[in-house]
Structure formats: C-alpha cells, structure tokens
Amino acid sequence: MPYASFRCNQVIQLTGNQLTLEYVGQATYFKLMQLWDKYSGNLTDFTTHFSFAIDSQNRSVYGDGLAFFLAPVSSKIPKTKGGSTIGLTHDDQALDSKDNPFVAVEFDIYRNVYLDPPGEHVGIDLNSLKSVANISWYIYIAIKEGKRNEAWISYNSCSHNLSVFFTGFRYNVPIRQFLSTNVDLSHFLPELVTFGLSASTGNSSAIHTIYSWDFSSSLEIDDNITITKDPVSSPNIPAPNQRKNNALGLAVGLGSGGFVLVGGLALVLFALWKRSRRNEEEDYVLDDCIDEEFKRGRRPRKFSYNELVHATNDFDEKEKLGQGGFGAVYRGLLRDSNTL
Questions:
Q1: Residues 6+ apart with CB under 8 A from 114
Q2: DSSP symbol at 317
Q3: Best label site of 119, 207, 234, 336, fewest CB within 10 Å?
Q4: Which of 306, 188, 208 is nearest to 11 (CA)?
Q5: Residues 86 and 203 in one domain
Q6: Is 234 contained in some domain?
C-alpha cells in the first residue's frame, strides 16, 4: 500500500486517508532546485506556500507531523518504523543525519522527549530533528477538528534568513505566528537539491492532507552540473506533460522508496519576499540586501492606514517587534501581495 495517496479531488494525503500507524509519505517537486552556484557563490532566493490540515478525527492523542524539506538529489525515503523523524532520516540518526542530510521546517505535533520542546511546535532543522529554532504552535483545536492551516516559508540569500510564517488557532480563534533563523544553506546542502513535503505517523496517528502547494526560486539550474547518483531507486518513469509556468509537477513517495510522477496538479506559483531585521549589528547586511532589491526592479510603495490596520491585526501588541526613534514597529501580512 502506498505511503502517500493522490486523491481525485486534487489533494495529497501524505500518510493515507485513514488513521494508520507507522506510516511515512513524501511529495516532491519533479524537478530539482539550484540552491547555490559554486562558480559565482550565489545562493538562490526561494519562497513556498502550502495549505494543509492535520486531522486526528477528534482524538486527543495524535502524531506525528509534517515538514517542508530540502535534501540532496541522492536522498531516499528512509526505512523507519516510528514517526519521530517525520520521514526525513533514519531513527538512529535523528540527532545527526549523516546518510540523509536535510534542511527542514517541521510542524511537529508529537513530543519525543529527547528531541522536542513540550507540546506542538514549529521548528527549523539542520541535519537533526533537534531544532536550531522553535516556537510553540497553537494548533490543538485545529488538529482535533481537522481545520485548514497555511504556511509561508522564504529564504533570503543576501541575509541568509530562513523565515516561517504560519497560522494556528488560539481559543478557537485563527492567529498568525512567526519563526526565523539565519543559516547559510550552502554549508549544509549541495548545489542541486530535491525538495518537498514529508509526513509520518508513529504509535499515534493523524491524517496529513495538502490542499495546495506553491513554490518559486530565483536561480536557474546550471546544465553543466553532473549528477552522480539517481535521485531514487525506481525505474525510469516519463515526466508528466507540463502545463505552462503555473503547473507544479509532484512525485509522491511509495513505501518501497520509489516515486510515481503525478501530472496535472495545477498550483499557482507566486513570489513572496521576506526581509528580516534582527538587530543593529546586521545593518550593513541589510543595506546590501536593499540595494540588491532595487537592482531587481523592486520599489517601495505607499500603504493606506486601513491596509496597515488590517495587516497588523489592528496593531496587535502580540505583533509588535520593537520601539524605535520613529515609533513602534509591527509585523504584519499584506494579503494582496502575500508580503510579510
């Protein structure tokens, strides 16, 4: 039985459509991503957005979660019996993934004491399921009721900032949450990578459903790069017919470690840009980033007061980042442009 199913209603259920224990499933983009270029030293900017639900069918005990991941082309779905690694690596390499290097953003709903903080959380992982950065995720009600959530992940190659903006539910009211860290991805992954979504269940279960997934990046693949290993161990399968730029082909992982290419799942690509300012010591980095933004043709624009009220949830104190000489600084989402 496949560890991931592609439903006729255009959703992907990474761990099947039932509360099955000890399942692993992945959905990957059928093309590779040029993460960085060794000749120029350039890193890519990328952004991804996905709409998803984790549904425990009203059960109070559930597991294990899902993750957006980047991995070397040679990576395969690890053979694992538990859900603690979310399908990213072998059980015995949860703290140091030597065989399957990866960078991931995890949406973890089951606590493994030696890996995780208490409760449901979102974390950024670098070759380890012990996150380098994490934050509590207010998601309990949404999991019991199978409510849909959104996640936006972006990487700024100039500041090396990997940021995650995601939704949750607090007292059954939708909220927005945020997490970020600085990391040079070229120190962890090769030039070409595969990327996608992974989910797992262990001794507890939930249904992990992807409703939509969008992705875009700035670097074109260098045709001179030689791939020394096949990305998967499956026989050659012809690529699906590609629609124009709004078609996103997926590979759905099977229990054998092979992949089946799925065509015809039209997902709209979009551009989401996130710039992070953490402290005054990073000013010189941000100046370079801003200069680069202008070179790329981006310009500042004016926003009405009503737009800012809506973006910051009426200047909610929870969204306040700090106080400066010109007043308070808030984090907000400009919905029309998908900009944070």
A1: 95
A2: G
A3: 336
A4: 208
A5: yes
A6: yes
| 196 and 316 fall within a common domain | no
Among 212, 232, 262, give the residue marking a domain's end.
Answer: 262
Tokens of 138: 């207010």
Cα 227 to Cα 231: distance, rounded to the nearest angstrom: 9
Which range has the worst mean pLDDT, 39-53, 85-99, 136-150, 287-301? 287-301
Domain membership of residue 271 (yes or no) is: no
Question: Which of 306, 299, 307, 308 lies closest to 327 in space, CA to CA?
Answer: 308
Q: Say which amino acid occupies 143.
A: I
Name the pTM for this structure: 0.69
Closest alpha carbon to 231 in 104, 75, 100, 33:
75
Residues contacting residue 92 through CB under 8 Å, at least 6 positions apart = none
Asked if pLDDT for residue 275 goes beyond 50, the answer is no
Residue-range definition of the domain harbouring residue 305: 280-330
Residues making up the chain, counted from first to last: 340
Nearest C-alpha neighbor of 96 from the set 62, 130, 128: 128
